[in-house]
Write a structure and sequence with these properties.
The chain has helices at residues 10-35, 58-78, 81-89, 92-103, 106-111, 120-124, 131-143, 159-162, 170-174, 188-203, 206-210, 225-229, 236-239, 246-263, 292-300, 312-325, 327-331, 365-377, 425-438, 445-454; strands spanning 118-119, 148-151, 154-156, 282-286, 305-310, 335-339, 353-357, 384-389, 457-463, 473-479. The strands form 2 sheets. The protein has a 7-stranded mixed β-sheet with strand order 6-5-4-7-8-10-9, with helices on both faces. Helices cover 45% and strands 10% of the residues. The chain is globular. It contains 20 helices and 10 strands. The chain is an alpha/beta fold and 480 residues long. The structure holds S-adenosylmethionine (SAM). S-adenosylmethionine (SAM) is lined by residues 237, 287-289, 292-293, 310-311, 314, 341-343, 357-359, 362. Keywords: Methyltransferase, S-adenosyl-L-methionine, Transferase. Pfam families: Methyltransf_2 (PF00891).
Length: 480
């Protein structure tokens, strides 16, 4: 497990893990007492972000990160190994069960019933699914702490299941076309549906895609596992815009626009010196989508001028959003949307900050080189490049990046994994999602450093974000 494993006999290792859990719980208790906040109950709906305020205290987060790392390591240590491997190999049923709960609108149907729940006959009726099969699906979820089986075949929501709630009335959802489910609602489940539909189906084709073709010489006809699974030559982002993929496009857009914010606790505003830029400094948000990040920057730092670049149809959506959210910035020219392909040269102008958020991970390294070289050509000595992505750590100690500010982290307590194992696992899932769908990749600091150097950018600072954060790591580079 941890690289320090040889120092501990097995029982001492188990005790050390248990001790990490006990002392972390004591830390949580102290922080809650000091701040007068309470810990969120696993039995109560996750309906408002404020209800997470106890868990969001920095010290509570750090303690929670240790508990997740230690508890999962403890399970991996004590359960008979073949059973752990079988349970790991069968995880796909859990993904499927989550999607079934979403498409049957189970969470919305159960919302009003509260803790007493509803019989599965009632839950199954609106979507006309077989109640006995739905009960088995929900029981697997309840066994994983998602929903509660209150009495045989009677299920109720709990905090985990309630994360899937759109907040909409189930009778409205059932009578709407499927692509309208997330309209006017919370779209977190849309993100999960994208993972479990396009992502999961593609993942099942990764084995055949990664292996060399049978003769060992000819190239595989499919570039990505996604291409193989969906029998298409189109890159994912083109395919999802095909007419017949309307439901998937709507769901994907909803999931990424609104859904991802439910999970993020730190933001674009943290970890970068936005206030150091004077009136009129230009920030170019490259591949900025509808400008949701730029919107947060503009609201917090009104002295900045924001230019959001993306593909033409996306910029039109962005203008609509900004007209609602911050019309004054568009009218005064303080913010503008620019249709621009990031594989083309940047328009000449003085840019203070180029922002690349969740862009580089979408692309293979050679394409990232093209994007970064165009930005470098448009930069002057004072330009900063801010990259926001998942920066992943090796699962072992690494010291080669010690000269980059923030890159090295203190090793966690023995015998935890250096990357805290399950605590940071979402970043590694994201990496495989990138591989599967796009031939993209999440990068380590070493890989990012090498990539930037090839494009004459120098990586000067890294911050990883909160313990549980995803897509919130930041890297700052300057021209070489
Ligand atoms: C994962 S989204 C990130 C959006 C935004 N940066 C954010 O963090 O919310 C990737 C974005 O890249 C845009 N994109 C893809 N190919 C592009 C290209 N060749 N030129 C400009 N933008 C592109 C997509 O339209 C999409 O908005």
């Amino acid at each position: 497990m941890g690289s320090n494993i040889k120092d501990l006999d097995p029982l001492s290792e188990i005790k050390a893990l248990a001790e990490i859990i006990t002392s972390s719980i004591a830390d949580i208790e102290t922080s809650l007492k000091d701040t007068g906040r309470t810990y969120p109950s696993p039995h109560i709906a996750h309906s408002r972000p404020e209800s997470e305020s106890g868990r969001n205290i920095l010290e509570v987060q750090i303690a929670g990160a240790k508990i997740v790392a230690a508890a999962s390591q403890l399970i991996a240590t004590v359960r008979p190994p073949p059973l752990t491997m079988i349970a790991n190999a069968l995880q796909y049923h859990l993904s499927t069960a989550i999607r079934i709960a979403i498409v049957t609108h189970t969470v919305e149907i159960l919302r009003d019933a509260g803790p007493k729940g509803k019989h599965v006959q009632e839950i199954a009726k609106p979507t006309n699914v077989d109640p006995t099969k739905l009960a088995r699906v929900l029981r697997l979820l309840a066994t994983n702490h998602i929903f509660v089986e209150v009495s045989p075949d009677v299920f109720a929501n709990n905090r985990l299941s309630s994360v899937l709630d759109t907040g909409k009335n189930w009778e409205i959802i059932v009578n709407q076309p499927a692509d309208q489910k997330y309209e006017g609602g919370i779209a977190f489940a849309a993100l999960l549906e994208h993972f479990i539909d396009e992502g999961f189906k593609s993942s099942s084709a990764l084995v055949e895609t990664i292996l060399p073709s049978e003769d060992g010489l000819s190239k595989t006809p499919y570039k990505t596992a996604f291409n193989r699974a969906f029998k298409t030559d189109s890159p994912f982002f083109d395919w999802v815009e095909h007419k017949e993929q309307k439901l998937r496009l709507t769901r994907f857009a909803a999931g990424f626009a609104g859904g991802s914010t439910v999970a993020a606790s730190d933001t674009i505003l943290d970890g970068f010196a936005w206030t150091s830029y004077p009136e009129g400094s230009i920030v170019v948000d490259v591949g900025g989508g509808v400008g949701s990040q730029s919107l947060a920057i503009a609201k917090a730092h009104p002295q900045l001028s924001l230019i959001v670049q993306d593909r033409a149809p996306v910029t039109l959506e962005g203008i609509k959003l900004w007209k609602q959210e911050l019309p004054g910035h568009l009218e005064s020219g303080r913010a503008l949307f620019e249709s621009h392909d990031f594989f083309d040269r940047q328009p000449p102008r003085k840019v203070s900050v180029f922002l690349l958020r969740m862009i580089l991970h979408d692309w293979p390294t050679e394409d990232c080189v093209k994007i970064l070289k165009h930005l470098r050509a448009a930069a002057d000595n004072s330009t900063r490049l801010l990259i926001v992505d998942n920066i992943i750590s090796y699962a072992c100690h690494e010291t080669q990046t010690k000269d980059i500010c923030g890159a090295l982290r203190l090793p966690p307590q023995k015998p935890l994994l250096p990357n805290l194992g399950q605590t940071s696992v979402l970043k590694y899932y994201a990496d495989l999602n990138m591989m599967t769908l796009l031939d993209g990749q999440e990068r380590t600091v070493l890989q990012l450093n090498e990539l930037l150097e090839r494009c004459s950018w120098k990586l000067i600072e890294v911050s990883y974000g909160d313990s549980f954060s995803v897509s919130q790591s930041k890297a700052i580079a300057v021209p070489m």
